[in-house]
Amino acid sequence: MSERTFSIIKPDATERNLTGQINAMIEGAGLRIVGQRRIHMTRAEAEKFYEVHAARPFYGELVEFMTRSPVVVQVLEGDNAVARYREVMGATNPAQADEGTIRKAFALSVGENCVHGSDSVENAGIEIAQFFTAEQIPG
Ligand code: CMP
Fold first, then answer.
1. How far is the CA of 80 from the centre of ligand 1 (A)?
2. Residues marked as catalytic
3. How far is CA 104 from the centre of its chain?
4. Which of 72, 82, 110, 126 to mutate to test the pocket of ligand 1 (most atoms within 8 A of CB)?
5. Which of 7, 22, 25, 48 lies at a 20 to 30 A Cα distance from 88?
6. Ligand 1 centroid to residue 56 C-alpha, Å
7. Is the CB of 125 under 6 A from ligand 1?
8. Does the C-beta of 83 come closer than 6 Å to ligand 1?
């Protein structure tokens, strides 16, 4: 079934001019980029986005990292988009990511891992709503 997921191309990837290569892998996996904006996340936006991780020891480092350079926020659409994008991203830790995944190809570490993708359809809706209005996602 066609659904949407939320993606972020993170600072470590935009700093290395990897946006185009990552988008090619996303599109090559059959996902359509239906919304896309390049933004410099504010500290407040990053803290809110990652508030479920607020108690984790890496939270401060994560917020620092996500606000270090611009990111590309995206809405991806396709059959089983949430699961499909997680397959294309590969494991959170690039050392455990499969060949052919974005993180295997480009990620530097568990923190600087190039991309974020929603973990459920419900969270995708919440995450998309934080960064996009309906008008910014033309059908
Ligand atoms: P993401 O999918 O964006 O959601 C939470 C992020 O926390 C995750 O990707 C990782 O980049 C980051 N993260 C997870 N574990 C660690 C860790 N041990 N140290 C630093 N960052 C981490």
1. 23
2. 116
3. 15
4. 110
5. 48
6. 10
7. no
8. no
In the prediction, which pLDDT does 15 show?
98
Cβ(115) to ligand 1 under 6 A? Answer: no
For residue 139, pLDDT over 80 is answered with: no
Assess whether the C-beta atom of 103 lies below 6 angstroms from ligand 1.
no
Measure the N-to-C terminal CA separation of the chain; round to a whole number of Å: 16
Structure token digits, residue 39? 């933004």
Between 139 and 38, the more confident residue is 38
The CA distance from 120 to 83, in Å, is 8
pLDDT digits (tens, 9 = 90+) for 45-99: 999 999 999 999 999 999 999 999 999 999 999 999 999 999 999 999 999 999 9
> Cα torsion at 116, 119, 120, 126 (round to 10°)?
-50
The whole-model pTM stands at 0.97
Residues 111-133, buried b or exposed e (16+ Cβ, 10 A)?
Answer: bbbbbbbbeeeeebeebbeebbe
pLDDT higher than 90, residue 1:
no
Structure tokens at 26: 């996303």
